[in-house]
């Protein structure tokens, strides 16, 4: 399988361990936000190396579509 990973996103200076820690912390602290897909959380983290689980929780607003 061939993937074009590096063409869409700027590389982050955040360590892999930091991603792991913040994602784990986010889903543990805010179980009500588990509807948020992990790739969306990772994209937020890639854009801001200082972002914390609390910051992500504050930035994400979950809404329900009346059509669902």
Would you kindly provide a written description of the structure presented here, covering whatever features stand out?
The chain is built from four helices and no strands. By secondary structure, it is mainly alpha-helical. Helix 2 packs across helix 4.
Question: Based on the structure, what is the oligomeric state of the protein chains?
Answer: single chain
Query: How much strand content do the residues show?
Result: under 5%
Mean pLDDT, nearest integer? Answer: 81
Largest sheet: none
Secondary structure topology:
Elements: H1 5-8, H2 16-29, H3 38-47, H4 53-59
Give a short summary of the structure.
The chain is an all-alpha fold. The protein contains four helices and no strands.
Notable features of this structure?
4 helices, 68 residues, mainly alpha, globular
